[in-house]
Design brief:
The complex is a heterodimer of chains A (about 80) and B (about 475). By secondary structure, chain A is α+β, with helices and mostly antiparallel strands. Chain A contains 2 helices and 4 strands, in the order βαββαβ. In chain A, the strands form 2 sheets. In chain A, strands 1-4 form a two-stranded antiparallel sheet. Chain A has a two-stranded antiparallel sheet with strand order 2-3. The chains are: A alpha+beta (about 80), B alpha/beta (about 475).
């Protein structure tokens, strides 16, 4: 991640190209900070987005996502 | 920059999937909401954590995961439908250090591969089996599987599975738990996040058992298939949790990992020198390059009683063909009788690769007895040659073939070996020239066949000459 994005809160990064809009991550998120976007990716799928705050870094979205590369969760070490 | 921990793709999976091709080289070929990708990630993570990735060999089945080798950064093999654990047995036994992962679906493992599965389990092979059960055939378009629930609609059970017609769902964990050898048997689910966390532990355990060489580990993973079950991913999670779990209860069925001991097999030796010795290919015994020009294909059938040298004559001709640089096949066929039955073999000599070793139309038939003539005369092509032993007597041959009675038994007996009547026939064939093999090549075949019996080699060389002389004088 670029240095301008240094945050003290954990945050997920969702790669739009790999998302197939199954919605599993949205259901799995305990803080309900993920949502289905309205834009379409290059392959024609809508894709999940992070609402921008509230992530606790539990990793549920990563583990429940069927795609290996679509979700990464960044957890700052204090 | 702040230090951070990243939860993401494990080392066990490739960062990109160039073998897959297509628009998104970093995305899988699986449908939205499919369970396979989840299982792949859990396996990839365990491989990384256990430090066994470099020794791991993944076996792809037939089914949606036929392309598992796109994703796993391990050794990969794709096996024939249902045979993954038979192939896995071979890998495990020949490469004792290998971590073997067999990744299979319900069609592959529980239907066509049921025998391989149960026997691999019963032998306690060192294989981690990941059995993804989604109650339906995915790749082929949603047909009924052995694990389809009673009443569940699929494309081949459109009104729901009827046990009167198609039986009941098969319970693999329960079946495998009846066997003594397996070390670990557990059923988990990847329906939702809480189940995925438990599945992760079972998958890790199965691979840990492989690292410790303890034997067979079987993890059944209940998994969604939203496309073929015609559900949304959320509905499919409910289906797995409520309906599938009722039929296939989750839990551990067996865990002997604490007390099981490492299985140590004898080391395999693949040094080239030793393999050459095994197959008689040591440097000193190279076949001579005779460089005989040849274009075409000669198909030979040899038939007689067991003990008349039928199969060995075929082998000598085939080895002669090898000596001449031909493509050859030798295909023996004999009945269940140990003694007195008829036997035959088909030999093909060709300048091109041979697709099938079966001879339907023969150029040459060598028959040592009457039943062989009765059986194979009709298969000789027009203009073909039939050599038959003179003791058979009169025989009514069809028009268009050349049939020659050879006093093979008599010549062989007079030369001092009644058993060598096949070599007499070989000499006559050499004189005839229909094999398109030189005397040097034939001698090469003879020498190879009698390699360990030098006295017999000399005798047969003499008898070959007698047959050749007879052929020159009588053909």
């Amino acid at each position: 991640m670029s240095e301008t994005q240094t945050q003290l809160e954990p945050y997920p990064v969702i790669d739009p190209l790999e998302c197939k809009a199954c919605g599993r991550c949205i259901v799995a998120c305990p803080k309900q900070v993920l949502a289905m976007g309205t834009e379409l990716n290059q392959r024609g799928y809508p894709f999940a987005i992070y609402l921008g705050s509230g992530c606790i870094g539990c990793g549920n979205c990563y583990y429940t996502c069927p795609e290996p590369n679509a979700v990464t969760v960044h957890i700052p070490l204090k | 920059m702040t230090k951070e921990k990243i939860i993401g793709r494990p080392q066990g999976l490739y960062p990109e999937f160039p073998r897959k091709g297509g628009a998104a080289p970093t995305a899988t070929h699986y449908c939205p909401g499919c369970g396979h990708g989840i299982v792949h990630k859990l396996i990839g993570e365990a491989l990384e954590q256990l430090g066994i990735q470099d020794r791991a060999i993944t076996i792809s089945p037939v089914g949606c995961t036929v392309f598992a080798y796109y994703y796993f950064d391990t050794g990969n093999l794709q096996s024939a439908h249902g045979r993954a654990q038979a192939v896995g047995t071979g890998i495990s036994r020949s490469q004792d250090d290998a971590i073997v992962l067999s990744y299979q679906g319900d069609g592959d493992l529980a239907s066509i591969g049921l025998a391989e599965t149960l026997h691999a389990a019963n032998r306690g092979e060192k294989i981690a089996v990941f059995f993804v059960n989604n109650t339906v055939y995915g790749m082929t378009g949603g047909q009924m599987a052995p694990t389809t629930l009673v009443g569940e609609k699929t494309s081949t059970s459109p009104t729901g599975r009827d046990p009167l017609e198609t039986g009941f769902p098969i319970h693999m964990c329960e079946l495998i738990s009846t066997l003594r050898a397996p070390v670990f048997v557990e059923r988990v689910s990847v329906s939702d996040i809480s189940h995925i966390r438990k599945a992760k532990k079972a998958i890790f355990k199965a691979l840990e058992i492989q690292r410790d060489k303890k034997g067979y580990a079987f993890v059944e993973i209940l998994s969604p298939c939203p496309t073929n079950l015609r559900m949304s991913p959320v509905e499919n999670a409910e289906f797995v949790n409520e309906q599938m779990e009722r039929e296939f209860p989750l839990g551990n069925f067996r865990d002997r990992s604490a007390e099981a001991e490492a299985i140590v097999r004898r080391e395999s030796d693949y040094a080239k020198a030793n393999l050459d010795r095994l197959f008689h290919l040591e440097d000193g015994r190279k076949v001579p390059e005779t460089g005989e020009p040849f274009h075409g294909k000669v198909q030979i059938k040899i038939a007689g009683f067991g003990g008349q040298g039928v199969l060995s004559l075929g082998l000598i001709i085939a080895r002669g063909g090898v000596a001449a640089g031909r493509q050859v096949s030798w295909y023996p066929s004999y009945g269940p009788e140990q003694r007195g039955g008829t036997s035959n073999c088909a030999v093909i000599l060709s300048d091109e690769a041979i697709g099938s070793p079966i001879v339907y139309r023969s150029d040459i038939l060598v028959a040592f007895n009457r039943p062989s003539l009765d059986k194979f005369v009709k298969d000789v092509r027009e203009g073909g040659l039939i050599l038959y032993d003179g003791t058979i007597g009169d025989y009514d041959f069809p028009a268009g073939v050349r049939a020659v009675a050879v006093p093979a038994q008599r010549v062989a007996q007079e030369a001092g070996s009644a058993k060598a009547l096949n070599t007499v026939m070989l000499g006559v064939l050499l004189a005839h020239g229909g094999l398109c093999l030189s005397a040097l090549s034939i001698d090469g075949g003879l020498a190879e066949s009698f390699e360990e019996k030098p006295k017999l080699l000399e005798l047969n060389r003499r008898i070959l000459e007698l047959g050749r002389t007879w052929g020159r004088e009588n053909l």
